[in-house]
Amino acid sequence: MKLYTLSIILSLFLMSCTVNEKPEFVKVNSLEVVEISLKNFILEADVQFLNNNSVGGTLEARDFHVFIDSIDVAVIKSKPFKVPKKNEFEIPLRAIVPFEKVFNDNKQNLLNSIMNVVSKKNITVTYKGKIRYKLGAFHYDYPIIYKQEVSLKK
User: Fold this and answer.
1) Global pTM?
2) CB of 68 within 8 A of CB of 124?
């Protein structure tokens, strides 16, 4: 009898939750340099989503790389982010980029890179990877490629 009552309550609960679709990727917002030190600089971008469902889930950056002038300079790792129910939200993607990585991996164009950064103080940054949505056994990967010119002036 307890099992029967529990199964009815669970069924009613599941029927009241609507899962129409996965959260919708909206756009990447505000890629910018948030901090500069002698050894590195920190880039941050907010990825905007819209969840129309009455259940949440989690989002997590997976195999997400940062490129500067086509050079892979950093990997973004994130903890799972809880998806709010029936809401628009943003998840931050933060990357710590060592200056030596930018210049050492581009030795052929080292002088050009240094002159470019010193004269323009702008760099071309590409965020490329996947953000995984997970709800129970279901998961979906959002491929993200976002390119923007970023100022190193702080």
Assistant:
1) 0.71
2) yes
The number of domains in the chain is: 1
Please write the tens of the pLDDT for every residue from 39-62: 888 889 999 999 998 888 999 998
What is residue 15's predicted lDDT score, i.e. its pLDDT? 45
Domain of residue 86 covers 19-151
59 located within any domain = yes
Whether the CB-CB separation of 43 and 33 falls below 8 Å is answered with: yes
Tell me the CATH number at 145. Answer: 2.60.40.10
Ranges of residues in the chain with a pLDDT under 70 are 1-20, 103-121, 152-154
> Where would I find the beta strands (DSSP E) of 58-137?
58-68, 71-76, 81-82, 87-98, 122-135
Q: What is the pLDDT of residue 131?
A: 92
DSSP track, 22-70: PPEEEEEEEEEEEEE-SSEEEEEEEEEEEE-SS---EEEEEEEEEEETT
Separation between Cα atoms, residue 127 and residue 76, nearest integer Å: 9
b/e per residue 30-66 (b: at least 16 CB within 10 A): ebebeeeeeebbebebebebebebeeebebbbeebeb
